[in-house]
Amino acid sequence: MTTAQRTLIKPEPQRPRVTEPDVDIRICLGTGGVAAGSREVLQAFEEEVERTGVLALIRPREDTCSGRSAAVTGTGCQGLCAMDPLVEIHLRRNGSKSKVTYGQVTPAMVPEIMSKHILGGEPIEKWLVLTDEGPTEYNAFFDGQEKLTLRHVGIIDPEDIDDYLEAGGYQALYKVLSTMTPAEVIDEIKRSGLRGRGGAGFPTGQKWEFAAGYNSPDGVKYFICNGDEGDPGAFMDCSALEGEPHAVFEGMAIGAYAIGASVGYMYVRAEYPLALRRIKIGLKAAEERGLIGDNIMGSDFSFHIRLKEGAGAFVCGEETALMQSIEGERGMPRLRPPFPAESGLWERPSNINNVETLAVVPWIIENGADAFAARGYERSKGTKVFALAGKVNRTGLAEVPMGMTLREVIFGIGGGVKNNKKFKAVQMGGPSGGCLPESMLDLPVDYETINQTGAIVGSGGMIVIDEDNCIVDTARYFLSFTQQESCGKCPPCRIGTKRMLDVLNKICDGKGTLADIDFLEEMAAQVKVGSLCALGGTAPNPVLTALKYFRDEFEEHVVDKKCRAGICTALVRYSIDAEACTGCRACVRVCPTGAITGERKEPHVLNQELCIKCGACYEKCRFDAVRRS
Amino acid sequence: MSAAQTTGVQTVTLTINGQEVQAQPGQTILEAAQAVGIDIPTLCYDPRLEPYGACRMCLVEVEGARGPMAACGTAVREGMKVETHTEKIRRIRRFVLELLLTNHPLDCPVCEAAGNCKLQDYAYEYLVDMVPWGWRGPLAGEPGDHPNIAHFGARCILCGRCVRICREVMSIGCWGYLNRGYDSEVDTPYRLPLQEVDCVSCGQCVSTCPVGAIVGQRSPLGARAWQTEKTATTCSYCADGCRLVLHTYQGKVVKVASDVGAGLNNGNLCVKGRFGMGYADSPDRVTAPLVRNAKNELEEGSWEDAFARIKDRVGAVLNDKGGKGVAAICGTHATNETAYLLQRFMRSVIGSNNIDAIDHGDQLASEQALTAAFGSCAATNSRKDLSEAEAILIVGANLTEFDAVFALDVIKAIRSGKPVIVIDPRTTEIAAKARHHLAVKPGTALAALRGMMKHILDLGLQDEEFISQRTEGFADFEKSLAAVDVAAEADTCGVDAGALRAAAEVFGRAGAAAIIYAPGTTRGDIGRARVAAIADLALLTGNVGRPGTGVYPLLSGANSQGLADMGVRPDRLSGGVSLTDADAVAKVESAWGASLAGLQSGIGISDMVSAIESGEIDALYVLGADPALALVDEKRVRKALDKVGFLVVQDSFLSDTAQYADVVLPAAVAAEDDGSFTNAERFVQRVRPGIAPAGESRQDWLIVQSLAKRFGADWAYARTADVMSEIAGVTQAYSGVSYERLEEGCVQWPCEEPDCAGTGILHANGFARGKAAFTPVEEGVATVREHPEFPLALLTGPVREHHGTGVRTRRSAGVTNLVAEAVLQVSSEDAKTLGLAKGDRVAVSAPNGGVVETTVHITPSMPAGVVFLPGFSPEAPVTRLIDAEEAGLTAVRVQRLG
Question: Out of B55, B91, B177, whose CB is closest to A491?
């Protein structure tokens, strides 16, 4: 193959290009949005535009490929999930354009938005989360972001291939097929510095180069997209698949061309029904348009994508277990070497990349490796999507250049800790990562720096933990997750995580000793080094980082028999201060076990034998009469 | 290392624990270390399986690697530096062992595996300390009620070896994982009892389990691993020649095990080999000589009584008719030494060539056809060669039932994606797994072979160079195929012509292709034509004399090949020397100090019954065979056994044949026997006694020697080794064989010099007859003679649990608890037509008047119009239905009883 220009069929939208509409309503139909009620909001808007006659102002969409009469656009996740359902409204009046976003919209709010804002031209300030002009408290969420990976998410209709094509979709694939050799593609990705976004951060271009270097006995190579996103609190892959499935297909096709693969697999967890639906719709459309399948765009490159639904095992996110699962086997990691590049799926050379990695590939091809490499920090180039969750004000998805500090992400974009509580730690990288204390908030988020702390960038989950969380209990939570998700193949992971959990339970139950902490640390070290795959190899990280940064809290549990967050119930005792108690009976009413008794205006009494330490009375009391010790 | 030097393969040099080690490219660190005696512990490793890396015991430190590497799955590299026992590594291993023990019943005092348990050994070696863990392990639980295989799930360490051996080696899959994480378990699908899943009771899981989770059901004798004596020997059932290790205690066999890494079977065994040894201990054993008394009853007597009677009565026959009035039949588990002495006794002492092997009737057609084509009849290649075959053709052999361990090499080929072609009316296990199954009508395999050869010629896929340089008779052969029409042949077989052509093309295009066929396919004239066609196909495609090619005639008994080699044939001396070969005969005469002049070619097995009927033979010596059930036309055979003037039966049991005997000589069973067997691949291997013969019974070769002496011979073989020396002296192909060499391992003949490594591939440089000969193909197929009242075709053959006529297996609880009865296998279509349900009692009758009552088993593996009855049961003797005079297939009628 040469670099000479080949004459291919340039992908174009089939729908006639229309002038920009005067009114454009985009409603987040990501899983978060749908869960918050955005479907109902969308329906309300559709009814309202019809009723008010605004329909005429909206671009005609009767000719969409889905045949849907879409007066209002449903998009993928717009990111600020805390404020779902989000509704973005673009207006053009007298030549000037405006764009605002409403948050936590309910169907009841729709008529007012319609009459006052869309027809009346006056945005309703109290519901706005984002405007072009004056700052709202949420502007900070969007301002620090730079969307390369998720650039279409929340903007286009993911079920409409023409939307993607209008936004420049498949032009990167066209460029690759018409002007680049596979080696040039690999070189471009290598130069961009793109690293695997699934967790390990392995250089993507190098991975492709390996896979390109192995020949298959029968010529078949596989290009696999890992969509088995399983870290608690991480949903960037979900968002990409729901919001711009074609970008992922396009990334896969580019990669497949680079390594010489003819068959692709998307392994997507079955718990993502919306993503699966959009992938199916998208694949069908892409195949019909000749963008995926035989002789793509009229070239001699053929690439078919098959969809495989995962059955919910966390370990199937591990590449070799994932391939076993595609083969119909129980998902258990295989010994490496041989690595998948040499012998992967069905013993053929295979390449596997994460969804997020693939979704940014078209951007890199379009904008060039240098543009990507210009962003980021040291050896971590480009942008990365982070999922903010836990005790943070603005939960949601944020794509930022790598190298931004943890503080900028959590306090700038995330808006800090909820309810003005004190920040305790951030769990980076899900159950394979670790928790970092406040003293590390000014560290830049890049692979090397975070790895040095004992945590990992991982797939980009950031779970914020505040003073109300017990660090021992948090470590126990993450460990119980990996322990349950262990495939059972190797003893360090299968039994080791269980024994570690036993010790953590013992500590939380107030029965731990200082020796248990050392034992836990020793076990953690052995599980880390002795396990077969990364699941076991990283499972101790939450415990090890908790011990590293919060050892005093462990010691408090075993020596003082105290849980400062009041989470470990065995170590907590509630009592009522008779002096402070006003006898309002509020605690009596909320106590689920009838442990509190007392007459009105008389000090109440708490029966320790009946108390289950739920803390309801503690939360309820307005006079600080309920004491926790 | 030496192999690499001799073959010139580049070796890899690495350092293990500071020691420089040479290894083969592609070897793992573990293999390289083992080769130089560095022991790396393993729990999930079994050389029969793909590396798995689960147990983490074989972790080693490799310089430059990110973390510890699993030695079982990491290939050696030039300059690699490996440390196998650093403190760091030892700590990981100890940690793993401690973890395993936190979850393991410490019931070693009552565990079958104690003393033979890797977990136990390593726990001790690695100074495991359970105190910090506060150990409180589970109880072992109940073993399940499978007759042979006990499963104690709580002892499982989840190494996955049973799961993998059942899938990777057996291609079955009875074991699998349940649940996840800490709750993971290994069990059968849906936790069904093993008897209700696809288990074939091979015990491969038992052989690989490193702990006591899957073990053999406990022997009543209950000896521990360190109490038993271990004796390596060769299995005496089929012709695969598997190495067994007898565990014996207080004169009894308490367990049969296998050595991974040793023997042709590499630790693999079938249900008979592993669990079918109970007969040695059977109460049915004949433990003293029996002599028929005046009341016409067999009565216990002394050896002296028995020999005196034989001398007296055989002497009378000799006086009356001379040596030709006496005949001998040898069973297929007689050792080479016994067989050799028997034929020497018959020829040089009795003066008779009336000696034959019980299974020669089945082999005859094959011997004739293959000898005509190649100049000799034996498997041309070793079965390990099958790994180099690019295609394998199997004609009428139900491998998993007939040669269960041989079958594993074919299963391996199938699993690795190689095309395997099966020509068989039945959907055998192999046929079901193979890429090409030509489910021909019974008796029409010849037509399928004709069609394949014709299509290969049509496509020009024949090996012209091979044909012109190494064969003769091609022109006539080609002419004989001229009129053959592929579509018509397919039609004759009842298979799709496209499928036939596809199979031919696959075979024709393979760079190396092998053919396997079973004795069952070779009866009668059509049988001979069939084997001739098989030889033709191999010659046509140049598939003889190279690795991965060749023709494998399967044989029915452990020493079927040895019997032929030793001269247990009416017309041949040992080494296949024809009685007409004066020079060779002279050599034997000089060795024996006897004259064989004047001996005419003897009466073979197929003619012995009629010779008894005619009175030509009046004394018969049956050694370890059961012609009453084994020879076709049971009624007539029994009449002849009744009629023959004097019948000596040498056996361990009062077989159906022995019940007609005048004298029964109590013979040692295989576990008590000494000598050697030659397997179907020409490997000569030692048979060693694990226990002393029961009661007064004696090893066969000693009985034959005593008899010979009684008839005046001056034999003085002190040991079986002496017999082998003599065999080597008079048998060209065995001239390099000696017991010294057999102690080191098996030897594959031809082995003509003491330092010859044996010959893996026959006809590599030239055929025994110079050029190989094509045989023009014959027309026709074996058919069932039209009998309107007998609408079904009868097939017979073995089932995996039993061997031969079942004299031994029927007395072994380990197999009879699985399969006790010879049932009639019927297709579901026929069952419907005949109104039969599983378990119905039926009468099977044949045109010869034979009627057998048995039980119906309905199976999808049978095609319509065909029934199958195995041959191991005297209650339902299939030979009763088969007419010796009818060359074609047997027609039968099946009627429901009651």
Answer: B55
Best of A343, A529, A531, A538 to disrupt the B interface (most B CBs within 10 Å) is: A529
Query: Could A498 and B182 be called an inter-chain contact, meaning their C-beta atoms sit closer than 8 Å?
Result: yes
On whether the CB atoms of residues B4 and B24 are closer than 8 A, the answer is: yes
Task: Determine the Cα–Cα distance for residues B199 and B193; give it in Å rounded to an integer.
Answer: 10
Query: How far does A538 lie from chain B, in Å, by closest CA?
Result: 13
Q: How far is CA B444 from CA A190, A312, B192, B488, B782, in A?
A: 63, 52, 41, 12, 6
Cα dihedral: B556, B562, B566, B571 (round 10): 30
In a 13 Å sphere around the CA of B569, the CA atoms on its Cβ side amount to 23
Phi first, then psi: what are they for B403, rounded to 5°? -135, 70
B544 inside domain: yes
How many A/B residue pairs have CB atoms within 8 Å? 94
Identity at A9, one-letter amino acid code: I
Residue indicated by tokens 């092997």: B357
Task: Closest CB to B73: pick one of A335, A483, A485.
Answer: A335
Which CATH number characterizes residue B67's domain? 3.10.20.740
Residue A66 has pLDDT above 50, yes or no: no
Domain residues for A506? Answer: 471-560
Contact B326, B621 (CB under 8 A): yes
Could you please report the per-residue DSSP string of A569-607? GGG--EEE-TTT-----HHHHH-TT--EE--TTS--EE-
Chain B partners within 8 Å of A313 (Cβ): 180
My answer on whether A518 and A599 are in the same domain is no
Angle between helices A245-259 and A171-179 (to 10 degrees): 10
- Of the candidates A337, A531, A532, the beta carbon closest to that of B74 is on A337
Whether A61 and A196 share a structural domain = no
Q: CA nearest B355: which of B545, B579, B530?
A: B579
> Is B667 strand, coil or helix?
strand
What tens digit of pLDDT does each residue of B360-399 get?
988 888 888 999 999 888 999 999 999 999 999 999 889 9
C-alpha separations of B722 from A388, B668, B710 in Å: 86, 19, 20
Peptide bond into A85 cis (omega under 30): yes
User: CA nearest A417: which of A484, A466, A361?
Assistant: A466
User: What order do you get walking across the sheet with B252-257 strand by strand?
Assistant: B229-234, B243-249, B252-257
How far off is chain A from B218, nearest CA to CA, in Å? Answer: 29
The model's pTM is 0.90
* CA angle, A368 then A369 then A375, to 5°: 105
Considering the domain architecture, whether residues A454 and A537 belong to the same structural domain is answered as: no
Cβ contacts of B766 within 8 Å, gap of 6 or more? none
Q: Which of B274, B346, B335, B298 is nearest to B689 (CA)?
A: B335
CATH code of the domain containing A624: 3.30.70.20
- Dihedral angle computed from the Cα positions of residues B383, B386, B392 and B395, in that order, rounded to the nearest 10 degrees: 0
Instruction: Please check whether residues B250 and B311 belong to one and the same domain.
Output: no
- Which residue reads 């694949």 in tokens? A283
User: What number of CA atoms fall less than 13 Å from residue B824's CA on the CB side?
Assistant: 36
3-state secondary structure of A203: strand
**Angle at which helices A541-555 and A497-508 cross, to 10°:** 20
Q: Is A312 in CB contact (< 8 Å) with chain B?
A: no
In a domain? residue A318 = yes
* ipTM > 0.90 (yes/no): no
- Say which amino acid occupies A263: V
List C-alpha distances in Å: B348 to B562, B585, B586, B851: 20, 12, 13, 43
Pairing of strands B298-300, B420-423: unpaired
Interface touch A491/B56, C-beta < 8 Å: yes
Residues A348-384: pLDDT tens digits? 999 999 999 999 999 999 999 999 999 998 899 999 9
